[in-house]
Amino acid sequence: MEIDWTDVRPRVAALAARPGLDRAFGWRWHEGLLEPPLTDAELTALEAQLGVELPGEYRSFLREVSRGGAGPAYGLFPLRRAADRWEWEGDGADITDQATLAQPFPHTEAFNPVDELPEQPDEDDGGDAEESWWELHDRVAFSPAHSVGLIYLCHHGCALREALVVSGPSRGQMWADDRADDQGFSPVLGDDGRPLTFAGWYRKWLTESEQQLT
């Protein structure tokens, strides 16, 4: 299905011109600035580098709206080209492993990698046991294996991030990575309780920003 993005730039520009941007989370950071879109040639080169076709909604956004900037939380990580390679830039953007984007992200429901860990030792068990448990916790929680097939697109601060599923049964959906809060991964849901795709996620942010900045 084709996405009509023609309203996005005017709406973002209108919001950026309003006073009181600090009332809406993240706007003081990205200031409503949208970087230029990718050309067709740039998009082709990006997908050739990644070895995977991007989900259609994000793909069309990159081509018709912007390669990054104003968006949910502190804004969309921008795509930048350096040393003949495209990279996403931002706090946590480096979690995206381009070499594993074609590997399926296998999940369709929320999961927490540390749920299967053995019970945390009591403080009375001694410092070594506690330290060993936390070392195991961090190895399991932050294993790169959990983020295959994901492109990280933004952060909420405090190492909380959101990513687009590129490969697997949830392809096209936005997922939250809340491992820093020990909450694992979960699909980002809309008001109807259904997982949001990129377009729904972005437009939800835009509508909420308009409501906050009236």
Automatic annotation (TrEMBL):
Coiled coil: none annotated. InterPro entries: Knr4/Smi1-like_dom, Knr4/Smi1-like_sf. Gene3D superfamilies: SMI1/KNR4-like. Transmembrane segments: none annotated. Residues 37-204 form the Knr4/Smi1-like domain. It holds the Pfam family SMI1_KNR4. This is Knr4/Smi1-like domain-containing protein.
